[in-house]
Give the backbone structure.
Amino acid sequence: MPDLAPARPEPGGPGADTDAARLADLGYTQELSRSLGILGNIAMGFAVVSPVVALYAVSMVGTMIAGPAWIWALPIVLLG
């Protein structure tokens, strides 16, 4: 039965991964870390919560200054 596995390109041959070869020449290995550390988790939490807090603050300021009528300005702002 024939081998159905894809052929690996020869180093330096056509189709070789020149970026990985360049990184290997510089002493690095090609890798992609798909995890978040504690600082990344804190930053994501801050980025998710901040717009909600801003929305509550804007609604409070709008209600205090213009009263309930400020809600009619929202569609105009959202269209902009």
The mean pLDDT is 79. The chain is about 55% helix and 0% strand. The radius of gyration is 27 Å.
